[in-house]
Model the fold of this input.
Amino acid sequence: MAVYNNYWFLTAPSKHTISAGLIRNADVLIIGGGVAGLNLLYQLVISGHVNTYLVEDSTVGYHASGRGGGHLMLRGHKLFSKMPGSDGAEYLQFIAENNRKLLNGLRNVRFDSDVRDCGGLRLAINDAEMSDLEQEARFIKQHRNLDCPLFDKTKVRTLLPNTGFIGGMFVPTEAILNPYKVVNGLRELIEQKGPRVLTNSCVTGVSENDDGSLTVSIRHKGTIRAKQVVYCMNAYTPELVPELAETMVSYRGQMIATDYLPDNTIQTFPHMGISCHDGNEYFRLYGGRLLVGGMRHAVRGQQVGIMNDGDFSPTVYDKLREFVGSALPVLGDVKYAYTWSGIMTSTPDGLPLIGALPNRRSQYIFGGFNNYGFGHALQGSILLKDIITKHEPPVKLFDPARFQCS
Done:
């Protein structure tokens, strides 16, 4: 069996650094050092809110943001065309703008992100899935004026010989990247003028003070007094905000990485992000290996409620290997080197929470990304920055109050 080790960490071992010290006061304190928290920190700092800091219980990108597949997709938990009313069109514009701005930013920064904006391929295994892709392509064209070409079985099999997929849709604006390098590069960009990220700082509680400020308790280190606090903890948010336990439901996603593939396979295999089964399974090349994720829906319980990203499911591991063997016979008898997991969050309606927490003074939330954190982090941080600093109203689609937290 493959070794349990997050392959992304191995691509940039020097990024796993711990900071020392603690600040005592902050105007805004962000809890969580993933892609959401770091994007929000960046937006606040560049807009002039310099007394803003971030605390992270481990190291930057250690949890979900540094453990995913590195796919930047033009979608959320649901297909836009299947969302009610005008929600799909609004959500499509949000994700599309997020991805456009993120890719533009990654092209312009100097840190290494391994970004490849080469488009993405979504595959269909049956007529029903192909019909969904056709409907989605029409919807994206109508509301974004973006052409997403449809592939028939013959075209798919020129890319993936002997596969069982009957068709697909190519999305030209999708991309792949190294998620661990991106979040750490963003930290380095933010801290060019001084440290703002405090790692190895586990928050154990947030309490309100009589003067309207908040006291944030850090295990074994002390406290920070903040005017405002933002929870960017995704699946771990209910540990500090227990009323969200039924709204933000955790689940464990799992990935595997093959051993090095032969050069001729690498040269002929599509160099783009590929997904199937309504986004539940996904794969891409990186560093001469194939990285594959998904298959939690194929096991009892679907890995829901699990909070431990230091372990994995042997059953899911076997299902992922079976998936590769049946879907990608071109790889032959491939061997596997690594497997790892990450803890994600689902919400009842498949949409994130971005805004003020009901019944919690000066406290905000930015999370619930349903496995698509990179597709929300930049545009969502811009929205939340304006909510915090300009008192802009929340976007109704993402307002945490829609679940009537109490």
Notes: The longest helix spans residues 87-108. Residues 16-66+180-245+349-403 form a domain with the FAD/NAD(P)-binding domain fold (CATH 3.50.50.60). Residues 81 and 139 are 6 Å apart (CA to CA).
